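User: I'm new to structure prediction. If I give you an amino acid sequence, what do you actually give back? Let's try with this one:
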Amino acid sequence: MQPKVSIIMGSTSDLGVMEKAAKVLNDFKIPFEVNALSAHRTPDQVLDFAKDAYDRGIRVIIAGAGGAAHLPGVIAALTPLPVIGVPIKASISIDGWDSILSILQMPPGIPVATVGLDGAQNAGILAAQILGTGDVKVYETVKTFKASLAGKISEANEELATVKFDFKTN
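Assistant: Good question. You get back a string of structure tokens that encode the predicted 3D arrangement of the chain. For your 170 residues, that looks like this:
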């Protein structure tokens, strides 16, 4: 089985966040790989990874990083593949804002699709949506997932109907 999505993170301390993307891809039956790469500590490996990703079958890259969070942008500068950045609130982070802005504020020509702070689940869903534009099976899986979200809200409203307050009218 050849991976279609690559999940990369600056260090294994980011795994608690990034495994949410892996869970989505696993649930959607999309082959993926998971690696730690550091734009600062292993720049040569990052370069090799980015340049070889397409030839290895990778079609979307999800890159998570905390603190200065250069990994997604460096990857995006090195490959024409779509890169989804996941800003992570790390122990060295300034409430996550440094990570968010480092990934979000890319220069013209180097786009990184950026999800919310610690938003790896949404990154996994977005990767599936991107792949679904060229794969009917993945498209149908995402479509079914999206439909299930509406069902969850309907269930929530049924539960809310049982909540009683003196002045609640519904």
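You can read the tokens as a compact description of the fold. Here is one thing that stands out. The CA atoms of residues 10 and 42 lie 10 Å apart.
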